[in-house]
Structure prediction request, 305 residues.
Amino acid sequence: MRWAAAVLVIAWGCAKSPAGESARVDPSTAIAPLDAGTPDAAPLVDGGPLPAHRDLPDVAAAMREILATHPRVIGFGELHARTDRAQVASSLAHFTDEVLPLVADQLSDLVLETWVVDKQCGAAGTAATAQVESAMRRPAATKSELATLVERARAAAIQPHAMRLTCADFAKVAPPGQELQIEILLDLITRELGRIAIEAVHHRDADPKARPLVATYGGALHNDLYPYGSVSSWSFAAAVAKATGDRYVEVDLYVPELARGDALSEREPWYPLIDQAGPDHVVLIERGPRSYIVLLPTTPGAKAP
Prediction:
């Protein structure tokens, strides 16, 4: 797949939805190598009414604790950067600069919540892409950040994967003269991310020399191990967990400035820990078994648009 010559599109990004929330999703919401002998990390601090959590010096320290649980697949999620939110370093940039170097020599495949527009789809593919980009309110920098991630992955001999959407898929997502079909798009994203991740696992499992990790990266909905019922069909996590013998781990990388004031995040049990975020540390939260949030460092002086 020739990424450099293709149009890359960051696909739909969503937050997790509280129990009882409508299933319809608002488009605008929504360093050192691993040592195989590293012992499992100590339990996180019991937060009482809050989820277990701990302050750590940086993202690398948080990831080392998570990696010590020996996952086969890690599903990374984010709250997407948007033009109508605080303009700070994105989760994608943190992932590229801080997480990827830590896992690079352990990672065989990186599945991205993006697609390459098939030129054979013509106007249908172009129209669907334009509608998605408009609805998502993504900063212009997002495309270049994604391209940087792909370049660095390839430089580290990691195979990047984009979703494959057919011309028929585009026609369903953006029927001529109609609104964007959000639920259909979410169905397609879930299908593709799960399919590619599982295929990558099976392919690498047949090679005894393959690296031990596969990762996905996208919005913090499709990677959810414990989804609310209203959005459970939009998570690939259960299928990937089954395919890996429960060696799937969910890691959400949240920029505190993007989570603060987010209507869905405010209703989550971990949300009060936003006040614990700061510029010189991260907060590692254990939402449940094999499910983590990393509250990234805050940006001093960050301003809303």
Remarks:
- The CA atoms of residues 264 and 280 lie 26 Å apart.
- The two ends are 37 Å apart (CA to CA).
- The first helix runs from residue 59 to 67.
- The beta strands are 8-10, 52-56, 73-78, 107-116, 159-163, 213-219, 248-254, 282-288, 291-295.
